[in-house]
Amino acid sequence: MVSQNGAILALDNVSVNFGGLMAVNEFTFTLQKGELAGLIGPNGAGKTTIFNIITGQYEPVRGKVFFKGQDITGWRPDRVACAGIARTFQNIRLFEDLTVLDNVLVSRHSKLKASVLAAALNLPGYINEERVAREKAMELLDRVGLADLANAEAGSLPYGQQRRVEIARALAADPELLLLDEPAAGMNPEETSRLMEFICDVRDKFGLTILLIEHDMKLVMGICERIRVIDYGVSIAEGTPQEIQSDSRVITAYLGEEACEYS
Amino acid sequence: MSDKSRKTILTIILIGFLFVLAWLAERCLDEYVMRVVRTGLIYVIAAVGYNLINGIAGQFSLGPNGFMALGGYMVALLMLPLDQKKFVWFLQPLIWPFNAFSFSKPFFPLAVALGGVAGALGALIVGIPSLRLRGDYLAIATFGFSQIIIVLANNLIPITNGALGIKGIPEYADIYRCLGWAIVAVLIISNLANSSYGRAMKSVRDDEVAAEAMGIPVFRIKLLAFVVSGFFAGVAGGLMASLITTVSPNLFSFSMTFNLLIIIVLGGLGSITGSAVTAFAFALISEVLRFVESPMTIGPIHIPGIAGMRMLVFSLLLVLLMIFYRRGLFGKREISWDWVFARFGKITGKGAEAWSHKTERS
Ligand SMILES: Nc1ncnc2c1ncn2[C@@H]1O[C@H](COP(=O)(O)OP(=O)(O)OP(=O)(O)O)[C@@H](O)[C@H]1O
Ligand SMILES: [Mg+2]
């Protein structure tokens, strides 16, 4: 049993396999409230799979997942989302035919109190809730600097903006824990540094706990307070960016030559 | 006056106008044309409901003919006069409670609504097992369930009178009732499609995994779309039973679903108003096209009448549309007041903005 004292997220010895391949093997991890932590490892190490375990996409064959002390193992993804865990996807998954505003509003649906009947008949109670949801969504888009794109079709936006919309959509659910899967993938260095600012900013403004997966070492080393390294589904190191950069296991298993640049 | 209440008033005026039009039509047009118009309105009801599950929620169902059958038989059983019931079920008696009562004319709208409930219940029972499937599998499952309903209609003689069907249903589905139900269907389905529930349905259509991760209860949202769609299929089936005055398993065969599929694809998957317009046009055009099925002599060539030629024309149209205009006539767009203002503005050269500025001050 992993000690949880005050941890917002705790993974206790979770394992997942895909037809014999141990994608994640006895992985244990805790995250404190307010932390900004990173999860790194080579391609196919099992990072995304860990996100999928946390969000209920995959059920671990062994082990448990705790969120704010509650056992959420085996919960359906929508229930996990409602409990306060939001995520983005490695290969962007926006609702492409919907506008940016509608994408964000989808995340507010689970907060809706009005019944289907009230919505179908456009009753005042529903109209009111819809108005409030729209105001909130616009306010959020404003805060993340996407307000002028509110009515653009999400699928028509350039890549970098789609990534920001995905983050905005995740934030709209009012999460306590935000999981970002390679938020800087496909961005140029300038976009990446703006994204770094954006992530730090979002954490402070929204009081979030953030766990992110990233291959861009500059980003990870630059903003994460704590980093966990996995390889072949097994945890191999954990520490501050400085500790990780000088860890011999990490250097051999993962960072290789890249490590020299930062040490 | 706010933008919203202005649109509400315009909608009310439009509805009033449609009823006046219906009144005029009844006075001026002959019985045959009015039948076509009423059929068109019934198609509108079924098509907008069908578009909710297929176009808005993106779940490929092939089931509406089954749910229309449930509504049709429900209305037949409720409305058929008692002496007519004795006459129809002369070999095997009709089961209780339907043998004990029949609705009088004022209760016809209630009977139609109960037909809708029958369709909705059917959709609930079919949806729970089949909506866990996706794409082609879902299509096959819903097709199978609909066929089961038709097979049951053929064989549950104490309820359906089998293949002979039920004759002598009072013809209460007049133009006003058909129009009224069509308006209710279009308004409710568009409200729903534009609401938070509709957004949830569209998110499921675009990306189920992402929708789930954003807290959307995917299965329940699909089931909701399916059940509402089943309700309006039932309503349409019920009105059709009363329009034709008979129901039989043949009336609700798969070709009904095929027609509806053509309509919603032609009109644009996801466009409710597109479906409504196309459904009405489909009924009219398919009547006009009746001549292609009659015997013809073109010069020296004599063509005997071929039943089903109309479907050939529609199928051809569908193929052409899929090649040149894949998203249908309306795509996902809706005919809304904003759209009308924009059009109106273009024609008069004033623009929608000028129009709204003027009214906002008053
Ligand atoms: N649904 C699945 N079915 C089968 N195998 C899978 C599935 N998902 C992941 N895997 C396998 O599990 C391993 C870990 O995959 P995962 O996506 O978690 O890696 P990752 O660390 O996120 O890699 P990357 O940096 O490339 O995104 C890989 O070998 C992958 O092929
Ligand atoms: Mg990954």
Folded structure, characterized:
The complex is a heterodimer of chains A (263) and B (362). Chain A folds into two domains: 173 residues, 3-Layer(aba) Sandwich (Rossmann fold); 80 residues, no CATH class. Chain A starts with 6 loop residues before the first strand and ends with a helix. The longest helix of chain A has 20 residues. Chain A has 263 residues and is of the alpha/beta class. Chain B is mainly α. The N and C termini of chain B lie close together (7 Å). Helix content of chain B is 71%, strand content 3%. Chain B contains 16 helices and four strands. In chain B, helix 3 packs across helix 11. The chains are: A alpha/beta (263), B mainly alpha (362). At the A-B interface, helix 2, helix 3, helix 4 and helix 5 of A face helix 8, helix 9, helix 10 and helix 11 of B. The site of magnesium ion (MG) has 3 residues of chain A, from helix 1.
